[in-house]
Structures are given as structure tokens and as C-alpha cells.
Write a structure and sequence with these properties.
Length: about 200
């Protein structure tokens, strides 16, 4: 019994060590995805059809604006600087977009850290985890929301992902575009690592 118990403990220790090493290796290879990305999160005033339609109007206006503003940014830090500097202009643009539709709801825009679920887009996917997030609150911000990736500028170019992922390593690009074999397992491991990092940070 003692030998069986000792053997079990050794096997369990080896399993845990393997899991830790796998988490560390996956984070080392793909963890830059979280550090290189700025997400866009637009929250409608309510779930009413009219509020949801206004959300999409604001989304479209901001995406076009940010597409031109962020295209030349060299990295996420540069993109963040531009976004922060332009929050007043973006809030005004969003308000004017609403006014054209006969709506005078307030708009509040922030740049902060936010947890995102896993998202699958047309030509790429992003793992769940904590990202830098450009959040757009229309009115109460209690309605259904909309997500995309604003840096690199992928919101308008989801079908051209390979041309807009240069900021990521080759391994990260392969994972995001699902060209990396076993990407679902790698996503799960990466997401677990990100969760544990947030849990203990």
C-alpha cells in the first residue's frame, strides 16, 4: 500500500509539473496576444431595436475614424497613446452620430482592462482573457454589446487578417488564424494561464 501511495504521489507530481511547464511554454509562445491587442467594446443603451441600431451607427463611425488614426501605430503602446489623446474627439463624433439620428443620449468612452470571452470572427479568433479595451457606453450602456479588435485595425478588415496581423509573432498569427494544428487545445491552455495569472496577480 505504501509503495502504491508513493507511486501515485510521484505520478501526480509528474503530471502537475508537466501541466505547469505546458502552461508556461504556451504563455511564453502565445501570451503576447494579450499584450499587443486593443479591443473595442460598444454597449448600447438598451436591447430595444432602435437602441441596437444606434449602437451600430456609432460603431461604424468610430471604426472608420480609428482605422485611419491607428493604421500607422507601431505597437499597442503607441495605439493607446493615440486613443487616449482622441477620446474627447471620439465622444463628440459618437454624440454627433446619434444627433443625426434624432437621439441626444450621452456617450462615455474609456480605455481600461476588461475580461473578454473567446471570440471567433470571419478569418481569425481571439482567446478569452483580459485585454486593453476601448469601451463605448451609449446612454445607460445596459443593452447588448458588440466586440471587435481595434488594434491591430481588424474591425473593417476581418477577411484580410493575414495582412493586418504583422504586429504578432509568426506563432501568434498561426494561432489566431487557426493555421496552428491543435489550436483549440492551445486556446484552452492559454485561457487557463491568463485566468490563473489574473487570479493570483
Amino acid at each position: 500500500m505504501k509503495r502504491i501511495g508513493k507511486g501515485f504521489l510521484l505520478a501526480l507530481t509528474a503530471l502537475l509539473l508537466t501541466a505547469v511547464l505546458t502552461l508556461a511554454a504556451t504563455a511564453q509562445t502565445y501570451g503576447g496576444i494579450y499584450d499587443k491587442t486593443v479591443r473595442l467594446h460598444v454597449l448600447a443603451d438598451s436591447d430595444e431595436p432602435a437602441a441596437q441600431a444606434l449602437k451600430l451607427k456609432v460603431r461604424d463611425a468610430l471604426i472608420v475614424y480609428l482605422e485611419s488614426e491607428l493604421t500607422e501605430c507601431s505597437d499597442r503602446a503607441h495605439a493607446e497613446e493615440r486613443i487616449i489623446d482622441r477620446i474627447p474627439q471620439m465622444e463628440e463624433l459618437a454624440k454627433q452620430t446619434l444627433l443625426k439620428e434624432g437621439c441626444a443620449l450621452p456617450v462615455r468612452i474609456t480605455l481600461e482592462k476588461e475580461d473578454y470571452p473567446r471570440r471567433v470572427y470571419e478569418a481569425f479568433s481571439f482567446p478569452a482573457g483580459c485585454y486593453t479595451s476601448l469601451r463605448v457606453f451609449i446612454g445607460s450602456g445596459q443593452g447588448q454589446n458588440w466586440w471587435c479588435v481595434v488594434y491591430p485595425p481588424l474591425c473593417l478588415n476581418a477577411s484580410l487578417a493575414n495582412e493586418h496581423l504583422e504586429g504578432y509573432s509568426n506563432e501568434e498569427q498561426a494561432l489566431l488564424t487557426q493555421k496552428n494544428g491543435g489550436y483549440k487545445l492551445r486556446f484552452a491552455i492559454l485561457e487557463l494561464g491568463a485566468y490563473l495569472k489574473d487570479l493570483f496577480s
